[in-house]
Design a protein that fits this description.
By secondary structure, the chain is α+β, with helices and mostly antiparallel strands. The chain has one domain. Helices cover 33% and strands 18% of the residues. It contains seven helices and five strands, in the order αβββαβαααβαα. It has a five-stranded antiparallel β-sheet with strand order 4-3-2-1-5. Strand 1 and strand 2 form a beta hairpin.
Length: 157
């Protein structure tokens, strides 16, 4: 994992990421903005169809290209800052009480990353967001593995 993550961990050392597979949905109010995914290949992020279809909310400064699928071996700082430091006593108590692995970045993001005082966006585990947004017309319901299949098919064409 990056030095950014190691420093933010409050441990004074780099952590080794042991993240599980996970899908998240970033929301701005009820607008699904982007899907964030983690799997064995790393982190991926792409904007939703709903976001691309609207014109009121601008893309995130860090991710300006709405038609691009972003990839990284490390979680981007925009999301990583949502994970509080383990040096905070209340975070340490929660991690211990819930038997969480602090080095599982996806699990920590799922547990602590929903809201940030510095951001109007809400990050939800995708299965929870899917239930919340059920019935919304023209929803982007693609999971990361479905996107991977589409990208693979496009490369073969």
């Amino acid at each position: 994992m990056s030095k950014f993550r190691g420093v933010s961990s409050g441990r004074g050392e780099e952590s080794i990421e042991r993240s599980t597979d996970a899908d998240f949905l970033l929301l701005y109010g009820k607008l699904p903005v982007l899907v964030l995914c983690h799997d064995a290949k790393g982190w991926r992020m792409f904007y939703t169809k709903e976001f691309k279809a609207q014109k009121k909310v601008r893309p995130l400064v860090q991710f300006p290209a709405v038609d691009k699928e972003y990839r990284s071996s490390e979680l981007w700082p925009f999301f990583a800052v949502r994970i509080p430091s383990i040096s905070r006593p209340e975070v340490l108590r929660t991690v211990q009480a819930e038997k969480l692995d602090y080095d599982d970045v996806a699990a920590m993001l799922s547990r602590f990353g929903r809201k940030s005082v510095a951001s109007p966006f809400e990050l939800k585990p995708k299965e929870e967001a899917d239930l919340l947004l059920a019935g919304t017309s023209d929803r982007d319901t693609q999971l990361c593995d479905e996107v991977e299949k589409e990208v693979g098919n496009e490369r073969r064409d």
